[in-house]
């Protein structure tokens, strides 16, 4: 092929080009390059080849253009004869294989084939043109080559289907421009947009580099011409293209584009401005760099637009931003200039733009503006005019320090936080140039005032600022004196602050001439190590490990130092051993330390109880760390034989020490644990009061672990079951509670501690000996807590569910739970643990398909396998809410089980009461405790039922669940009302417990609403009780705020916020049901409100009236609306509800009717404040004043309200009432008139 091409080239240019077009571009590139680059400037081909090349290019382009023109399906010159058309075959099986008219398809195929051939020819010709342009000896005249090159460029848009040809043409135009050949300005109008679009599409750096190398060509366009719009759009796209923002060439190119056109500058700045609120840090920093480059190169109007338009706007925006995040984003863009302030002109520019606004903004009333301005000042510090005198600069610097000192005492904690950290940053960076008086004044205020600030964040920022300041060695001399003033922060009540102090101590430990124990005394460190959270304790361990277990001394000395620590502070030493491994101590050294500990414990040397406890706890921690390594676990096992284990347990004189021995044995030597079973059994069975004792909980968990590891869990669980049976039997004796007949297990187990005796348990636990029921019940509560705790772990849960005494423990828990519920108002010691343990156990049994059989009095057996039977107490609790007032809820709960009530009558059993008559004060105290117990019981019951519903159980009882929830919430509201009327006052601790229960109950009630909404379908509509729950929950919030204050209400609203959508849907459920299912539906929310008017609507009316200065309603004794109470938290909640409602017009319509119904009730009651409040809320909050597009349901309600307001206006004589009615009429009148005369929707609803 090469010979033929060389021969044709010697013959003529036309023959060479003709033969070249028959070759493949990819394979012929090296040959063509070699042949063309051998042509000399004196050769005839240097003049003939460009001419022939132009002719071939023009011919191919013309042929391609003709193929692009539309062609008729037949010949353009049909025969004039009018012979009839041939008969067309019908499509049938006989002709299915014969195309009806193949000529058009064949023609299209031929056209496509011809296009491909022409494009292939043009690829070769374009490449030859590139070779001619880049000829090393410049053998070809540019004027000869230009016509052909221009033909390719001008028709570039036609070849969009051939990427190879497009690239070759673009390469050709690019090389022409780089070689600065004549006429290059005619080869950019098509090639530049193509290269720009290619770089944006393919996102390759090589394409971006090509665009950047051609940047000067972009200056030739007229950007004011309308035809340039496509190129302008591509350039603006570059502003948000990551490739252009990440690379240096891209940033340089964008900075260059800023100098092309004033109008283009405005559009690019607008694009950047729109990206600032959402841009990432890297994008915003890139914008800052681009703007700085553009500013340096800009002149005239463009520079003015950048400075006085965009940059001034950024500075104003950074100060007045609506959020801290937006202000930070703007400052990142400004950082492109601030970081280049040493560049000539930048410092003066920043001063000129910032000085007029920043000092005024630092002193305004708005704390957000002060904070934003402070951030900006800290970024630009020191703000000064480089052309001013030294006296002026010093005065301005003093002014900045004066404002910083003032902001350190700002009323807003957020401003103080920024001021503290900013002051430390300024001292770190500019220590050398700041006057010593200013340094002393600032740093003293930080240490003396800010470290004692009431705000946690300010104290924490003080520590972080000092840590940063320590990075400047020149500050060390003064800090060495002042740092002890921060020692009190190690006893701060927040973990984050104490952790920051530990970080500070770790930093100064490694600074020469600093001693950390002079900042925080060692005794305080050890106390914190012994009692603090793991985060802080681990940092203190890291701080002390070079002193008390150094790696650079012999291991014997290291062990001696650690023992010294334990003897000085036993629990601190134990915690030190807990974190020693994680802080780099050698495993081998820790093994030796463990041996020393065991030897010291077993030695005859006398140690006090605290030291012995510390050694055992420390050994337990070390054992847990060492046992993770198999080789050390074997060594530990050999170290502790049976006799040593007994000695260890004998030496343990405290419960925690015994728990540590149990942990050690269960971890490394389960076979030696037989001698500990009796002691461990005592721990788990004598468990009264464990639910409130964290230390005893840890001990019992250690015993559980031992029983699991030693295959003794069944014995332990059987012992717990015996105690539960004992308490259940005494419930039967004391209260007459029914006991199932199948109280024994038919299965026998080997080596059971109570083998052969289980069948007689119910009788044996009675006896004739007097008993203390409260003590037995307290033990049962502790066992219930243990069962719940054991069900958390997978191993212990499997052991319980596989236990042969599971049925007996389940029945006993059931009986104790019944008594806990029935007697909670009569016995103060009743607890929720049995109920929670019973329901959790029932859930796990149901999930694992563990069935039990309960034999009734009549002898029938009930196999409980499904969810409804595994939670029978839920049905009883639900049944308690069917009738009566909510204030009677507990007594109704006591009557929920008719059989239990019957057994009460048969046994003539009554709850125990004191023989003596209590005083009034004592009665109130008893009532407080009873209400608290009742709330806890109901909270536990609600929790258990909702948990069951969440895993798919009780789905058929949603209506009853909702009814029970409503009545429970009503009971709490009633109890709070009784307290506010001084019927009794809760003690502070009891009140805290009630608030915790209320928050938990609110969350579970909202979860229930969510479950009900998820279950809604055509076959299962939303229960009408959902509205009651939602309305009562809103009542609860207003009641909490009214009776307990805004602080507790705010915490409840915080818990309610994630569930607001479910609350809103339930609130509008009644009207949605009516709308979707027709007027015949039984439940209608508006009708329900008229019968049971919710208090939250009254509170809404009060909050609205308090905003209307022209309305001053008087407080009335009959409960009418007044402005006497303020509900700021409820008002904030209403704002969140409005925001959500505006997102869904249908729900807005359904809920809006509820508010209007409040006005209807106000009209019926002649309470015109109640009329005006909801109307004002609807017209001014739910809708804007100009928004008249109400939904159908709200318009239907309006049709009843508006005429009635007009009638009341005519009949009302009281001036105050008339004023309120007139205000309500003015608010509704625009909507009324609009739909009467414009849409006619109101008239259609008559």
From TrEMBL:
UniProt-annotated stretches for the region Disordered: 68-109, 879-921
Pfam families named in the record: Condensin2nSMC
Feature: compositional bias, Pro residues: 73-83
Composition bias type Basic and acidic residues, residue spans: 98-109
GO annotation, biological process: mitotic sister chromatid segregation
Entry GO terms, CC: condensin complex; nucleus
SUPFAM superfamilies to which the protein is assigned, alphabetical: ARM repeat (SSF48371)
Domain of life of the source: Eukaryota
Basic residues composition bias: residue spans: 85-97
Organism of derivation: Castanea mollissima (Chinese chestnut)
Matching PANTHER family: CONDENSIN-2 COMPLEX SUBUNIT G2 (PTHR16199)
Protein name: Condensin-2 complex subunit G2
């Amino acid at each position: 092929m090469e010979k033929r091409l060389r021969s044709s080239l010697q013959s003529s240019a036309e023959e060479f080009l003709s033969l070249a077009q028959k070759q493949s571009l990819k394979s012929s590139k090296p040959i063509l390059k070699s042949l063309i680059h051998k042509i000399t400037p004196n050769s005839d081909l240097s003049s003939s080849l460009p001419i022939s090349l132009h002719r071939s290019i023009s011919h191919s382009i013309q042929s391609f253009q003709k193929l692009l023109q539309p062609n008729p399906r037949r010949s353009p010159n049909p025969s004039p004869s009018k012979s009839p058309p041939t008969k067309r075959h019908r499509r049938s099986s006989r002709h299915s294989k014969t195309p009806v008219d193949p000529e058009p398809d064949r023609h299209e195929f031929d056209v496509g084939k011809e296009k491909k051939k022409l494009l292939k020819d043009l690829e070769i010709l374009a490449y030859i043109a590139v070779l001619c342009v880049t000829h090393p000896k410049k053998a070809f005249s540019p004027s000869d080559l230009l016509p052909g090159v221009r033909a390719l460029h001008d028709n570039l848009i036609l070849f969009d289907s051939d990427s190879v040809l497009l690239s070759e043409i673009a390469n050709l135009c690019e090389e022409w421009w780089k070689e600065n050949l004549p006429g290059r300005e005619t080869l950019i109008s098509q090639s530049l947009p193509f290269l720009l679009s290619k770089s944006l599409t393919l996102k390759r750096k090589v394409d971006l580099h090509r665009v950047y190398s051609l940047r000067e060509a972009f200056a030739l366009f007229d950007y004011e011409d309308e035809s340039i719009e496509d190129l302008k759009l591509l350039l603006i796209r570059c502003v948000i293209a990551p490739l252009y923002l990440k690379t240096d060439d891209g940033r340089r190119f964008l900075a260059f584009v800023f100098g092309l056109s004033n109008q283009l500058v405005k559009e690019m700045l607008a694009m950047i401005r729109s990206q600032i609120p959402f841009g990432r840090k890297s994008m915003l920093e890139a914008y800052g760099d681009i703007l700085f480059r553009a500013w340096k190169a800009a002149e005239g109007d463009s520079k003015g637009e950048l400075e006085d338009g965009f940059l001034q706007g950024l500075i104003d925006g950074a100060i007045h931003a609506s959020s801290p995040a937006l202000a930070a984003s703007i400052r990142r863009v400004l950082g492109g200039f601030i970081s280049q302030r040493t560049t000539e002109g930048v410092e003066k520019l920043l001063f000129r733009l910032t000085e007029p606004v920043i000092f005024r903004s630092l002193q305004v009333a708005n704390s957000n503006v002060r904070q934003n301005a402070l951030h900006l000042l800290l970024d630009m510090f020191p703000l000064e005019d480089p052309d001013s005198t030294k006296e002026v600069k010093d005065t301005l610097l003093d002014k900045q320090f004066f404002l910083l000192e003032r902001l350190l005492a700002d009323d807003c904690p957020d401003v103080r936080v920024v001021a503290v950290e900013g002051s430390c940053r300024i001292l770190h960076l500019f220590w050398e140039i700041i006057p010593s008086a200013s340094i002393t004044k600032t740093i003293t205020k930080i240490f003396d005032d800010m470290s004692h600030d009431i705000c946690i964040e300010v104290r924490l920022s003080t520590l972080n600022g000092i840590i940063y300041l320590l990075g400047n060695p020149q500050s060390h001399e003064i800090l060495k004196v002042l740092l002890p003033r921060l020692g009190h922060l190690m006893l701060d009540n927040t973990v984050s602050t104490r952790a920051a102090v530990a970080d500070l101590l770790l930093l100064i430990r490694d600074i020469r001439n600093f001693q950390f124990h002079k900042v925080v005394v060692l005794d305080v460190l050890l106390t914190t190590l012994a009692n603090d959270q793991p985060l802080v304790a681990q940092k203190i361990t890291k701080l002390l490990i070079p002193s008390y277990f150094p790696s650079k001394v012999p291991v014997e000395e290291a062990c001696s130092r650690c023992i010294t620590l334990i003897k000085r502070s036993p629990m601190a030493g134990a915690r030190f051993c807990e974190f020693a491994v994680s802080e780099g101590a050698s495993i081998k050294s820790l093994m030796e330390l463990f041996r020393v500990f065991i030897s010291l414990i077993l030695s005859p040397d006398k140690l006090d109880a605290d030291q012995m406890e510390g050694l055992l706890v420390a050994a337990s921690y070390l054992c847990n760390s060492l046992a993770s390594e198999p080789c050390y676990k074997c060594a530990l096992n050999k170290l502790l034989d049976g006799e040593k284990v007994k000695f260890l347990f004998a030496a343990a004189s405290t419960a925690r020490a015994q728990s540590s021995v149990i942990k050690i044995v269960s971890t490394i030597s389960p076979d030696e644990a037989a001698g500990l079973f009796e002691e461990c059994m005592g721990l788990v069975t004598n468990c009264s009061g464990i639910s409130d004792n964290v230390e005893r909980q840890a001990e019992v968990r250690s015993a559980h672990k031992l029983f699991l590891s030693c295959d003794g869990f069944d014995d332990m669980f059987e012992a717990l079951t015996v105690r539960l049976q004992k308490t259940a039997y005494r419930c039967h004796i004391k209260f007459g509670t029914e006991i199932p007949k199948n109280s024994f297990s038919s299965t026998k187990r080997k080596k059971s501690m109570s083998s052969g005796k289980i069948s007689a348990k119910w009788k044996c636990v009675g006896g004739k000996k007097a008993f203390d029921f409260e003590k037995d019940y307290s033990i049962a509560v502790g066992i219930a807590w243990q069962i719940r705790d054991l069900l958390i772990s997978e191993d212990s849960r499997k052991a319980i569910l596989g236990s042969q005494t599971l049925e007996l423990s389940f029945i006993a828990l059931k009986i104790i739970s019944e008594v806990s519920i029935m007697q909670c108002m009569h016995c103060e010691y009743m607890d929720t643990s049995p109920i929670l343990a019973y329901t959790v156990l029932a859930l796990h049994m149901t999930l694992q398909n563990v069935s039990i059989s309960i034999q009734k009095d009549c002898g029938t057996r009930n196999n409980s396998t499904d969810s409804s039977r595994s939670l029978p107490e839920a049905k009883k609790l639900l049944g308690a809410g069917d009738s009566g007032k909510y204030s009677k809820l507990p007594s109704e709960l006591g009557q929920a089980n008719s059989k239990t009530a019957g057994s009460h009558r048969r046994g003539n059993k009554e709850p125990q009461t004191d023989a003596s008559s209590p005083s009034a004060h004592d009665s109130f105290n008893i009532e407080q405790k009873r209400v608290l117990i009742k709330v806890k019981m109901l909270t536990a019951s609600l929790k258990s039922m909702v948990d069951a519903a969440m895993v798919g159980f009780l789905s058929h009882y949603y209506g009853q669940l909702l009814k029970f929830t409503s009545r429970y919430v009503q009971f709490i509201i009633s109890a709070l009302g009784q307290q506010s009327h001084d019927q009794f006052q809760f003690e502070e601790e009891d009140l805290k417990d009630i608030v915790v229960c209320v928050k938990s109950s609110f969350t579970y009630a909202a979860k229930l609403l969510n479950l009900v909404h998820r279950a809604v379908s055509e076959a299962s509509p939303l229960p009408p009780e959902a509205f009651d729950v939602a309305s009562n929950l809103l009542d609860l919030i207003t009641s909490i705020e009214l009776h307990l204050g805004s602080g507790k209400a705010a915490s409840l609203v915080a818990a309610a916020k994630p569930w607001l959508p479910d609350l809103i849907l339930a609130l509008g459920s009644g009207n949605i049901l009516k709308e979707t299912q027709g007027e015949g539906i039984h439940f209608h929310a508006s009708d329900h409100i008229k019968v049971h008017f919710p208090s939250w609507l009254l509170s809404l009316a009060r909050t609205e009236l308090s905003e209307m200065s022209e309305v001053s309603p008087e407080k009335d004794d009959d409960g009418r609306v007044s402005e006497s109470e303020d509900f700021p938290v409820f008002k904030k909640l209403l704002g969140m509800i409005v925001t959500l409602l505006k997102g869904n017009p249908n729900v807005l319509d359904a809920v809006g009717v509820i508010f209007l119904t409040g006005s209807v009730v106000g009209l019926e009651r002649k309470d015109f404040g109640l009329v005006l409040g909801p109307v004002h809320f609807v017209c001014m909050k739910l809708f804007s004043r100009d928004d008249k597009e109400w939904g159908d349901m709200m318009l239907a309600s309006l049709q009843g309200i508006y005429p009635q307001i007009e009638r009341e206006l005519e009949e009302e004589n009281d001036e105050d009432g008339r004023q309120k009615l007139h205000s309500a009429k003015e608010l509704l009148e625009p909507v009324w008139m609009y739909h009467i005369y414009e849409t006619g929707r109101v008239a259609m609803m008559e």
